[in-house]
Amino acid sequence: MLKILLERRSIRKYKDKKIEEEKINQILAAGKVAPSGKNKKPWEFVIVEDREVLKKLSMVKPKGGLFLAETPVSIAVIGNEEISDTWVEDCSIASAFIQLEACNQGLGSCWVQMKNRFTKDGGDAEEAAKEILEIPTNKRLLCIIALGYPDQERPAYKEEDYL
What we know:
Blueprint: H1 2-7, H2 21-32, E1 43-48, H3 51-60, H4 62-65, E2 73-79, H5 87-104, E3 108-113, H6 125-133, E4 140-148, H7 159-162
Antiparallel strand pairs: 1-2, 2-4, 3-4
Helix pairs in contact: 2-5, 3-6
């Protein structure tokens, strides 16, 4: 496990290569088995592969999300605060599990925060992305996780990085 933790790095450049369905299913399974407060699992995961939708999402937060336009697949991590008052923490843990399994599958990933972030004109990034993804108003969008085969190299952490 430590090997994966050391190898996982935020990747923002991806090859134009489709991700196999089995890998996506494994990544989703990892998110679904993440621990949550009182085991309420207040999350939903929405797979986004449509290039036009990804391009629109990339423009919601151009300072931190432009690379979404070139991502083969992204996962929107949606929380339901009506199910659990710890939805942020629960969805964050699930998101971390998703990213770790992506690394295990030989994929790169990067978290694009939406909750409490702003569009380039000062609007609410979460609300703008929710509109694009047609997420109901009673649900929250924590983040969008980009996934793909890395088209950049980032060195693994070394022992001196964590000692």
